[in-house]
Automatic annotation (TrEMBL):
It comes from Marinomonas piezotolerans. Homodimer. Interacts with FtsZ. This is Cell division protein ZapA. It holds the Pfam family ZapA. GO terms for cellular component: cell division site; cell septum; cytosol. Belongs to the ZapA family. Type 1 subfamily. Activator of cell division through the inhibition of FtsZ GTPase activity, therefore promoting FtsZ assembly into bundles of protofilaments necessary for the formation of the division Z ring. It is recruited early at mid-cell but it is not essential for cell division. It is found in: Cytoplasm. Keywords: Cell cycle, Cell division, Coiled coil, Cytoplasm, Septation. PANTHER family: CELL DIVISION PROTEIN ZAPA (PTHR34981:SF1). It comes from the Bacteria. SUPFAM superfamilies: Cell division protein ZapA-like. GO terms for biological process: division septum assembly; FtsZ-dependent cytokinesis; septin ring assembly. Its main location: cytoplasm.
C-alpha cells in the first residue's frame, strides 16, 4: 500500500513526509503546531541553534502530552469514584423503597 507524501514547512524548510492515507490533515496540523512552537522559541532569543530549538520544542510538547494524559487519568479515576458512589446511593435508595 502506497503512502502519500505530504510536504510540510518547519522554520522555512520544506520536508517531504510519508503519511498513512487519510491522515494528511493530521500531519499538516501537527507540523503547523511544531512550527509555531519552534518559531516561538526562536523568537524568544533564549534558545539558539536549530537542533536545540527542535529538542526544546519536542520536550515542551512531550511534557504537555504527558501532563494531559495524567490529567485525563485523574479525571477518569474521579469519574469511576463518583459512579461508584452514585451506584451505592441508588442501591440504598432501592432497598429503602
Amino acid at each position: 500500500m502506497e503512502k502519500p507524501t505530504v510536504t510540510v514547512d518547519i522554520l522555512g524548510k520544506s520536508f517531504n513526509i510519508n503519511c498513512p492515507k487519510g491522515h494528511e490533515a493530521e500531519l499538516k496540523e501537527a507540523s503547523e503546531y511544531l512550527n509555531n512552537q519552534m518559531r516561538e522559541l526562536r523568537a524568544s532569543g533564549k534558545v539558539i541553534g536549530l537542533e536545540k530549538i527542535a529538542i526544546i520544542a519536542a520536550l515542551n510538547i512531550t511534557h504537555d502530552l504527558l501532563s494531559s494524559r495524567r490529567y485525563a487519568r485523574s479525571n477518569e479515576q474521579q469519574l469511576r469514584e463518583l459512579t461508584s458512589q452514585l451506584d451505592a446511593a441508588l442501591g440504598q435508595q432501592t432497598k429503602a423503597i
